[in-house]
Amino acid sequence: MNNKFIRIYEDIAERIRNGEIEAGTLLQSELELSERYQTSRETIRKALKMLYEEGYIQKIQGKGSIVLDIRKIDFPVSGLVSFKELAQKMGHRAQTVVKLFREQAVDQALSQKTGFAQQQQVWQINRVRKVDGEQVILDKDYISQRLIPGLDEDICQDSIYEYIEQGLGLSISYAKKEILVEEPTAEDRELLDLEGFHNVVVVRSQVYLEDTSQFQYTESRHRPDKFIFVDFARRK
Prior knowledge:
The chain is built from eight helices and ten strands. By secondary structure, it is an alpha+beta fold. β1 (about 55-60) and β2 form a beta hairpin. Helices cover about 30% and strands about 35% of the residues. It has helices spanning about 5-15, 30-35, 40-55, 85-90, 110-115, 155-160, 160-165, 185-190; strands spanning about 55-60, 65, 75, 95-105, 120-130, 135-145, 170-180, 200-210, 215-220, 225-230. Keywords: DNA-binding, Transcription, Transcription regulation. This is Trehalose operon repressor.
């Protein structure tokens, strides 16, 4: 059947997810897999291509396919990387769902929290990020309407940073970040799959354009098992 390679992909992907095939090991060769699944090597190549595109394996010339560790995702601390850019490395394993999109005036409490001036109009956006079907990140954003006009739910579903850089032609320059661990809120428990987890990792960021104007405040709330927060340090 034409979709046999999909069934093979799904079987191997499930074995990687449940740990039967360990991260860092070499996947069986095309010949071994074709014998295991009683199919042609061309069908196996299609399944391997799909595994590669979905972020389960990395092809190493002359060696074969090495299994990637899909349980943890490197999340750069010092870099400014959109979720779409991270998701592209994971293929279709990642998905965004917009839970809230509305306009809001900044009051005193929100000004103290975000750094935006009072009475400024902002977009308020809540998005849930899914990885392998599990809801593991809640992103809560406030974005300046004056600096970033024209936002809508479709853009938020896709990539706000891509819209800013490619649609508006603006340059995102730098961010101030803080990382802490908190007990989950009622909202976290409602929107994230947190059964068995008693903490969330919270990254709060104020993000600036090239002219030093703050355009975004974001609070990104992560289930702790899915991400490794990485940085590069050099002794001076």
